[in-house]
Write a structure and sequence with these properties.
Shape: elongated
Number of helices: 30
Largest sheet: none
Strand content: under 5%
Radius of gyration: 32 Å
Number of strands: 0
Structural class: mainly alpha
Distance between the termini: 97 Å
Amino acid sequence: MVRKTLFFCATKHVFSSIIKKPSHYHQTHLFYCCTSSSNPLLSEALFEMAKQGLEVKFKKYDTLLNECINQRGIREGQRVHAHMIKTHYKPPVYLRTRLIVFYVKCGVLGDARWVFDEMPERNVVSWTALVSGYSQKGHFSEAIHLFVQMLRSGNAPNEFTFATVLTSCTGAIGFHFGRQIHCLVVKSPFESHIYVGSSLLDMYAKAGKVHEARCVFESLPERDVISCTALISGYAQQGLDEEALELFRKLQAQGMSSNYVTYTSVLTALSGLAAVEQGRQLHAHIIRLELPFYAVLQNSLIDMYSKCGKFTYSRTIFNQMSERTVSSWNAMLVGYSKHGMGKEVVELFEMMREENKIKPDGITLLAVLSGCSHGGMEDKGVHIFNDILTGKDRVEVSIEHCGCVVDLLSRAGQVERAFQFIKEMPLQPTAAILGSLLGACWAHLYVDIGEIVAKQLLEIEPENAGTYVILSNMYASAGRWEDARRVRELINERVMVKESGKSWIGTDLMHETGKDIAKT
């Protein structure tokens, strides 16, 4: 009721005078002052709607709403809706559903939900339209909750409802609901529908359940590029690079058509295998096909070449991009960082800051800190960390960022500085961070700090034999033999056994040697 009152107030100045039929000049002037449409035909049609008043019927409303949807004309569509309310028109289910679709397309989910809640009756299209709206905007829990309400209302979902709600089944809780929805799909007539099957496959693949995804894929009566790409992407995202490439080759041999998303997933698999020659062949194949070079495809090429150490190729693609995303910068930065090219990391990061078009994110900061750590640029790394922490390009700091700073200072032998940083951290240090500092205390013989760090570490992991071993070795390196013996005794008292290192190479050599001895 409140929303309706506000809506009346917002449109009163438009329609109150128009329905009273003032002069033609005044009508036209008032209308063009209030409309933002760039289409004069739509403007004329809306003006005619206002003149007709109560005489406007379903077909005219439907035609106007369709045009507003096509043009994403939010103000124009709101005027159509306001006219219905003002003239006390009772739209049929189909027209109310068109209003929901209109508001969803324009990104006004609140108004779409209001129209939905005001509907005296709903059909499967109404429910599906709103579920789709929530799903597209990332409101996954709302989409699932609405789907459950639909089931309770007695409305049976169709293939589009199932395909839409399955895209919202992400995360642990979402996947739990997704499996239940899969059970409903099996009981429905839509199990073999290509849209539903592709959504199921994608859900399992994103959850890391590639075996289940493959089972769904094999059961599909027909496959399209979307379902094939979803499975290839699932393999690549889980690090099953060989399986992704094997499936791609198999489907190519069967005549499957591929799109830029397919090639993006295959490039991800090739970068995981560092298969640069196959990557170059695929790059040439993409060029021959004259596929449009979307940013996501270019980013995958940059990532593949960078991980393989072919920075001439990756930087050429990067420099030629008409529009870069944060992922484009991160792909180059991570590549430089992984190869210990700290100077190049800092130079590229400074270039990113100077362009001032893309804001760095958490991955950017990790790549820069890691590059500074491996490049022996600890002062620069700490400066960048502090600058991003407090400057205009502020990034939310995670425990991984703090760990990078500790590792950066520890590698440089600045143990006291690293210890002070841990004490001032906004987050509680993890065992990995403390372990990194403890190793630096041993390497640089900071025994006093090492004792404090070891004590904190043992509070987190009291049964970790490695901490005792490092502490004992540190005492021994400092000539404190009595303390070293005492720590060794603690290990024996608590019956902690440090796992021995193993090597499959050594095992094979021993096996082969055994064979030779047996022969002699």
